[in-house]
């Protein structure tokens, strides 16, 4: 199954992740808050964004969007998006663009709205009766909340992998080709080709090629999560959503998932939610920091971690709060 655009050359994510982590640690451990504050005042590198004051006073907060991400070709555009669970507003005027063929990370403390935003992109929140929205989310220029939008077709274009692996209680083979079966594909050659291609794409083929008819539930947790990714990419989506895909995995399995995300870059536009700062620095091209349902700062990952524009962002990525 060929695609129109070639895989972006794999970057050295390990080296970059180590460099970012080292720099973050040095900044956190070697400076007292007073010294850091004085340096910021002298250099003007970061400034208070007034985030907490805006929240306390109920005012609109204006996020900082770095120029580099503002000019990227977008596959998903979130425009003035608000979401409520009943009377509680969970997302406040979110506007950001997810660039085509890149990995974008959503970071922020628990309850900041990361997963709510992610689930909104393929309308998973429609399943909650009390949810209401305002604003727009567009996929390749078309509103996903427009009249007449087929949600089933939309979710074929936007695949999703959840926090906990959720393989279907069927064989490995049938898990992977499930979306094709639903579409009415019956040709065995087509199904076999899709199964192998997707499992290879998920880095799982060599581990399971001799037991495709075995139950998917017999796989390890890490293998199950990669199987779920294989099942998602079998439908050839434009966007792949990952909701903390490594939170339930051990370090070895986590490393394999991160390598896989690196390999998928260029073939898919990936939007990932993570609580792990080091993981965000290793796997993503761009990072968006959210707090209490608000977008705070959005820019290239290296810039956001090493030279954030706002003090609130710097304090979060260096572990001073959250």
Please give a quick description of this structure.
The chain has 322 residues and is of the alpha/beta class. It has one domain (13-317): 3-Layer(aba) Sandwich (Rossmann fold).
CATH fold call:
Rossmann fold
Report the CATH C-level class.
Alpha Beta
Query: The biggest beta sheet, please?
Result: 7 strands, mixed
Mean pLDDT: 85
Oligomer: single chain
Total count of helical runs of at least 4 residues = 15
What number of structural domains do the residues give? 1
CATH 2nd-level architecture: 3-Layer(aba) Sandwich
Give me the CATH superfamily. Answer: P-loop containing nucleotide triphosphate hydrolases
What percent of residues adopt helix (DSSP H or I)? 40-55%
Strand content: 15-25%
Please provide a written account of the structure:
By secondary structure, this protein is an alpha/beta fold. It has one domain: 3-Layer(aba) Sandwich (Rossmann fold). Helix content is 41%, strand content 21%. It has helices spanning 13-30, 33-43, 51-57, 67-70, 114-121, 151-157, 172-176, 178-182, 188-201, 205-208, 221-234, 251-264, 277-283, 301-306, 311-317; strands at 64-65, 74-85, 88-99, 103-107, 131-139, 142-143, 158-161, 239-243, 269-273, 286-291, 294-300. The strands form two sheets. A seven-stranded mixed β-sheet has the order 1-11-10-4-9-8-7, with helices on both faces. Helix 11 packs parallel to helix 12. The model is unreliable at 1-12 and 27-43 (pLDDT under 50).
């Amino acid at each position: 199954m060929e695609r129109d655009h070639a895989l972006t050359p794999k970057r050295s994510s390990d080296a970059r992740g180590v460099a970012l982590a080292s720099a973050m640690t040095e900044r956190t451990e070697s400076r007292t808050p007073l010294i850091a504050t004085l340096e910021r005042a002298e250099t003007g590198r970061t400034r208070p964004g007034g985030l907490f004051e805006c929240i306390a006073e109920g005012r609109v907060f204006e996020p900082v969007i770095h120029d580099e991400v503002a000019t990227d070709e977008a596959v998903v555009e979130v425009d003035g998006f608000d979401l409520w669970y009943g009377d509680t507003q969970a997302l406040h005027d979110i506007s950001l663009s997810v660039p085509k063929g890149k990995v974008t990370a959503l970071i922020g403390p628990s309850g900041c709205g990361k997963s709510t935003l992610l689930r909104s992109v393929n309308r998973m929140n429609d399943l909650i009766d009390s949810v209401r929205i305002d604003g727009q989310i567009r996929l390749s220029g078309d509103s996903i909340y427009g009249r007449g939008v087929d949600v089933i077709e939309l979710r074929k274009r936007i695949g999703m992998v959840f926090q906990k692996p959720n393989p279907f209680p069927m064989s490995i083979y049938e898990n992977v080709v499930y979306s094709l079966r639903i579409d009415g594909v019956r040709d065995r050659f087509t199904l076999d080709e899709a199964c192998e291609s997707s499992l290879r794409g998920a880095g799982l083929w060599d581990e399971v090629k001799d037991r495709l008819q075995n139950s998917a539930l017999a796989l390890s947790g890490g293998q199950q999560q990669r199987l779920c990714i294989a099942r998602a990419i079998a439908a050839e989506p434009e966007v792949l959503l990952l909701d903390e895909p490594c939170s339930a995995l051990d370090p070895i399995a986590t490393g394999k998932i991160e390598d896989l995300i690196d390999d998928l870059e260029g073939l898919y536009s990936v939007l990932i939610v993570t609580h792990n700062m080091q993981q965000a620095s290793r796997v993503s091209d761009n990072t968006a920091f959210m707090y209490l349902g608000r977008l705070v700062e959005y820019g290239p990952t290296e810039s956001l971690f090493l030279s954030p524009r706002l003090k609130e962002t710097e304090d979060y990525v260096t572990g001073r709060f959250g």
